[in-house]
Design goal:
The complex is a heterodimer. Chain A is mainly alpha-helical. Chain A is built from twelve helices and two strands. Chain B has one domain. The interface between A and B is large, with 45 and 47 residues.
């Protein structure tokens, strides 16, 4: 039972980092990233490739934290002067390209078989690491949310033209927030790789991106504590459905599919009945004189 | 050479039938509907069921027709349950919801049919023209697409209902004010795009195989084709599919090695999908320039 709690907290922590990362992009800034799994995969593969080449873990972590923001800038470039739906397509395409590249370069990335990464054997230590990364990410996200920078991100979300008339360039805000968000997700990826001890392209598909989306929409876009709550519910639903499967003896892939179907349903129902999420974004009032 | 052209036309046909539905939806409701890809998958599975369930075992064309009608009705049902209630939500919101719908449909299909691949047992003979080899199935696919696209064109441009749909696409409020029954026509649009997707999905399934994961294989080419054609332009999507397909097949066919280094070397076939994404990004980059230029004028 205790093992199960440790495992659940570890998984929830990793997915909460991803949810926070998507939250500062979508919830605060309004960027629709349909390739959120890409920076996560970049981090995980940086750890995996570094390990397979015999480098220590921190080289992999560093490589992931450098690669992710660079790719973020590359991907956000075409987003300049483009409607949101186009950026969604580009990020979706970029994530798929990465997955295809991994599948087609077995010499470096292990192809479909994946890579072995040194695993943190002690589950309590693994949990501590994951929670520590989560706390750092959360504090950073909170800091952004309450800063003047965060307020400007919200202006960009609500009205890009208004942001421009205030003398701020929306694309700069979108680019900088993407860089921060992608570094967060890459950190989650590095952590994930060392916790599971294994990275493979099948863990980084479009479906995973939408598990993150479901968590953010469920918890409350724009609210950091909300999206952690959302990620916790979604992941608890995930791990508990495995238990139920053992109990009532249903085939595991049937359960896996029903689980994903329920995530899809949650996403749709939230949009229909409670688009602000379970813990909505609080209205902020600022007095320019006193601030 | 002829072989490459034949392959391109067949592939473009399959993509185009599905892609026009995405454009139809975008032109009227102004959002990229990612659930559309699942209509194609559902259509493929329904055709398979109608054609193989013992006691029913419809002949394949009839099975496809039945599947098209069912998928069209499913699209209307989804509109009634979900999208019609979100008419005032932002385009991004609708796009995200369409992913939720897609995830739901995809998982239900996989739960019912399982993940393993199914193959249609269709007899087809090979035809040899010059040095090109293709099958009677290829010819049927290309002809079916041609007929459907001409029919769609006649419908949109030669009938009153078609003009109504185009009016909705160009200015919804004005069209409704002028007495065009907006809601009913939107339902009709869903039916059309759903059933076209079902036929496209069935054709792809018949030619290759049926699997719940086929959505990931066709998603990028379809959205690339739609984007090349300009998202809301229905027949632009057909041209987009053709351009994309030609680019993919020719890039693989051209012997870059002999051209540049002297030794024969081809781009491996597995890099086909890269062309789709590259085309997508390229078009978006060029488009953002031109639209920015247009805005300055």
């Amino acid at each position: 039972m205790l093992d199960f709690a440790v495992y659940s907290i570890t998984i929830i922590a990793v997915w909460s980092i991803l949810a926070l990362s998507l939250n500062i992009q979508f919830g605060m800034t309004g960027l629709v990233n349909f390739g959120q799994i890409l920076p996560f995969a970049l981090g995980a593969y940086a750890a995996g490739i570094a390990a397979s080449l015999g480098y220590p873990w921190w080289i992999g972590a560093l490589a992931g934290l450098i690669a992710a923001p660079l790719i973020a800038l590359l991907v956000i470039m075409p987003a300049q002067r483009l409607a949101q739906d186009y950026w969604a397509l580009i990020t979706l395409g970029a994530a798929e390209i990465f997955r295809l590249t991994v599948l087609n370069t077995p010499a470096l990335t292990g192809g479909a078989d994946g890579l072995i990464v040194p695993r943190i054997i002690d589950p309590v230590l693994a949990m501590t690491v994951a929670v520590a990364v989560l706390i750092v990410t959360f504090l950073l996200a909170q800091r952004i949310s309450s800063s003047p920078y965060g307020r400007m991100l919200r202006v960009v979300r609500e009205d890009e033209i208004l942001a421009s008339t205030l003398g701020r360039s929306p694309i700069r805000y979108q680019a900088s927030v993407s860089v921060i968000a992608w570094m967060m997700a890459a950190a989650a990826g590095v952590t994930y790789a060392h916790i599971t001890g294994y990275v493979a392209p099948s863990s980084f598909t479009v479906t995973e991106t939408f598990i993150i989306w479901t968590a953010v929409i469920l918890g409350g876009p724009g609210r950091n504590i909300g999206v952690i709550f959302g990620a916790a519910i979604i992941q608890l639903l995930g791990v508990s459905s495995r238990f139920i499967a053992q109990w009532i003896d249903l085939p595991p892939d049937l359960i896996a599919n029903l689980r994903l179907a329920s995530f899809g349903l949650v996403l749709v129902l939230m949009f229909l009945y409670r688009p602000q999420g379970l813990i909505p974004e609080a209205k902020q009032v600022h007095d320019a004189e006193r601030d | 050479m002829i072989q490459v052209l034949v392959n391109s036309v067949v592939y473009a046909s399959e993509i185009a039938i599905i892609a026009v539905g995405v454009s139809l939806c975008y032109s009227i409701l102004r959002f990229a509907n990612f659930a559309h890809i699942q209509f194609a998958v559902v259509g493929g599975y329904l055709t398979y069921s109608f054609a193989t369930i013992p006691g029913l075992a419809l002949p394949l064309p009839l099975a496809m027709l039945a599947s098209a009608v069912m998928t069209g009705l499913m699209a209307i049902l989804i509109d009634i349950l979900v999208f019609s209630r979100l008419r005032n939500t932002s385009a991004e919101g609708k796009m995200i919801v369409s992913w939720g719908v897609a995830l739901f449909i995809r998982s239900i299909v996989a739960a019912i049919y399982g993940g393993s691949a199914r193959v249609f047992d269709v007899p087809s003979s090979t035809i040899v023209v010059g040095d090109a080899v293709f099958t009677t199935l290829d010819v049927i696919i290309a002809c079916a697409t041609l007929v459907l696209m001409v029919a769609l064109h006649l419908f949109l441009y030669r009938t009153r209902i078609g003009s109504g749909l185009r009016a909705l696409a160009s200015n919804q409020e004005l069209a409704v004010t002028r007495g065009i029954p907006g809601d009913r026509l939107i339902r009709l649009m869903w039916f059309l795009s759903g059933s076209l997707a079902a036929i496209g999905g069935s054709l792809i399934a018949i030619q290759t195989r049926l699997q719940p994961s086929m959505d990931l294989v066709i998603m990028l080419p379809i959205f690339a084709a739609v984007t090349i054609g300009g998202l809301s332009n229905v027949f632009g999507a057909v041209v987009g599919a053709l351009i994309l397909s030609l680019a993919q097949n020719f890039l693989i066919w051209i012997d870059f090695g002999t051209l540049f280094f002297g030794d024969p070397w081809h781009i491996p076939t597995k890099f086909r999908d890269y062309v789709a994404v590259l085309a997508l990004v390229l078009v978006l980059l060029l488009r953002s320039r031109s639209s920015a230029a247009a805005a300055k004028r």
